[in-house]
Design brief:
Shape of chain A: globular
Number of helices of chain A: 5
Low-confidence stretches of chain A: 1-10
Oligomer: homodimer
Structural class of chain A: mainly alpha
CATH architecture of chain A: Orthogonal Bundle
Number of strands of chain A: 3
Number of domains of chain A: 1
CATH class of chain A: Mainly Alpha
Largest interface: A-B, 67 and 67 residues
Largest sheet of chain A: 3 strands, antiparallel
Mean pLDDT of chain A: 85
CATH topology of chain A: Arc Repressor Mutant, subunit A
Order of helices and strands of chain A: HHEHHEEH
Helix content of chain A: 55-70%
DNA sequence: CGGGATCCTTATCGATACTG
DNA sequence: CAGTATCGATAAGGATCCCG
């Protein structure tokens, strides 16, 4: 009955426990900024404010907490060099570099298919308009 | 200076416009539930309450708005059969099926690497404990 | 420079009630 | 069954100030 015959079945039809497991894991990384930060760090280590510039419109509070989460999950390392002014460098760990691959896959897909998404949005709006 | 030499460079070092583009696109799909719903629908069409059971701990309100977003972005189709009781079936569109691939990649990575994440969390907690 | 602490403003979510 | 509408709780986010 399954529509997919992928070799590794990670689906969770009827397996709600596994589905919840995936859910919790995805929830940890699928916030608005984590993947973006991982992507930027994939180009090399960054210091806090450099990271903030590269990521875009992110507040320092949110970036700080995002980095804490990423560090907690083992994606990012935080290296403090005690000089004046203090210097803190963020870099991807081995796990973070591994994670970069699926993230890039996703990012590339999204970039490549954004026209299709835009078209769908226009059609959706048109459909809604004539109700 | 880049640490990656991937063929298709979708990174955004110094290209903040592109980065923001990716940011907006990722933000549209990287909420807590969208990928999960796409995954479940990847196993075949579902009606509202069946979907709700399969996804897990999601309220009807959030599922409804998630489905609206997915429909708006062209990932999911909504087919109403006017019978009593009313019957509404959700299914992946072509775009949604395409999207399934990077989503599965991500889900499989997360499943496979959750032990590493767990270990990192324990180590992080241990480090924090001796400050 | 790299944040933590605080306050305040918004989204977000869950529960309940109600409609076709 | 498949939702929408409304309300209250709660979490997320921005702005500002401050410290090492």
């Amino acid at each position: 009955m399954a529509t997919l015959d992928n070799p590794v079945d990670t689906a969770c039809a009827g397996d709600s426990a596994r589905c919840e497991h995936i859910s919790r894991l995805l929830a940890r990384i699928s916030d608005k900024w984590s993947m973006l930060v991982v992507r930027v760090l994939g180009q090399g280590p960054r210091r806090f404010n450099a990271l903030r510039r590269d990521v875009g419109e992110i507040s320092q509070k949110v970036l700080a907490s995002t980095l804490r989460d990423l560090e907690e999950n083992g994606f990012v390392s935080r290296t403090v060099t005690p000089v004046t002014p203090p210097q803190v460098e963020y870099a991807l760990t081995d796990l973070g570099r591994d994670f970069l691959q699926p993230v890039q896959t996703l990012a590339e897909w999204v970039l490549a298919n954004s026209p299709r998404m835009d078209t769908a949005r226009i059609e959706y709006a048109a459909r809604r308009a004539l109700d």
